[in-house]
């Protein structure tokens, strides 16, 4: 049984990995059949609509590989982020000991750059409601599903090239 305290510690550790740009370690938190979804419309089936991100495990690996091992102009210079995780809720699910975990998240992003670079040097705030399905694996917890619903997902998104 996953407690709220355990879930909160897991989510805070995940946020720290992302903020510290330890993307390989972050990727290792996901199960082999995981889905990572950032919808434009959270009430629609991702198979029938456009999503900001809709990654299976293979695509998630490609995203991490691109951010860590290739020159990514969208992240040069790289974003600096700070994530705040709050309002953690845990609900057990049927089968295999999985739990649905919900939380709110606030991401502060800053991209340093020169004065002539549009959109840089200005902090940006992204608020989101997150939903996870955590699965027990080898005595720990892994992410089988993660959905990040940005508060302004239906608005134009400026260069969302970091991992929300």
Short description:
The protein is an alpha+beta fold and 164 residues long.
Describe the 3D structure.
The structure is a single chain. The chain has helices at residues 4-19, 23-27, 57-69, and strands spanning 30-39, 51-56, 80-92, 99-110, 124-137, 140-150. With 164 residues, the protein is of the alpha+beta class. It contains three helices and six strands. The model has no long low-confidence stretch (mean pLDDT 90). The protein has a single domain, classed as Nuclear Transport Factor 2, Chain: A (Roll), CATH 3.10.450.50. It has a six-stranded mixed sheet with strand order 2-1-6-5-4-3. Strand 3 (80-92) and strand 4 form a beta hairpin. The radius of gyration is 16 Å and the shape is globular. Helices cover 21% and strands 40% of the residues.
Order of adjacent strands in the largest pleated sheet: 2-1-6-5-4-3
Element string (H = helix, E = strand): HHEEHEEEE
Number of helices: 3
Distance between the termini: 28 Å
Which shape, going by the Cα principal axes?
globular
Give helix % range.
Answer: 10-25%
Spans of at least 5 consecutive residues whose pLDDT stays below 50 are none
Strand content: 35-45%
Give the number of domains.
1
- Overall number of strands: 6
Average pLDDT level: 90
The main β sheet shows up as:
6 strands, mixed
């Amino acid at each position: 049984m996953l407690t709220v305290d355990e879930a909160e510690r897991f989510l805070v550790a995940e946020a720290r990995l992302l903020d510290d740009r330890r993307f390989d370690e972050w990727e290792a938190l996901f199960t082999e059949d995981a889905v990572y979804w950032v919808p434009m419309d959270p009430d629609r089936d991702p198979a029938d609509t456009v999503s900001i991100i809709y990654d299976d495990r293979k695509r998630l690996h490609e995203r991490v590989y691109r951010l860590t091992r290739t020159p990514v102009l969208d992240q040069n210079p790289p974003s600096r982020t700070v994530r705040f995780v709050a309002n953690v809720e845990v609900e057990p699910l049927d089968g295999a000991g999985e739990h649905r975990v919900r939380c709110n998240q606030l991401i502060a992003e800053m991209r340093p750059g020169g004065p002539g670079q549009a959109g840089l040097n200005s902090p940006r705030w992204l608020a989101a409601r997150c939903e996870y399905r955590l699965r027990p694996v080898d005595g720990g917890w892994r992410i089988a599903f993660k959905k990040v619903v940005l508060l302004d997902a239906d608005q134009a998104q400026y260069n969302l090239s970091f991992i929300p």
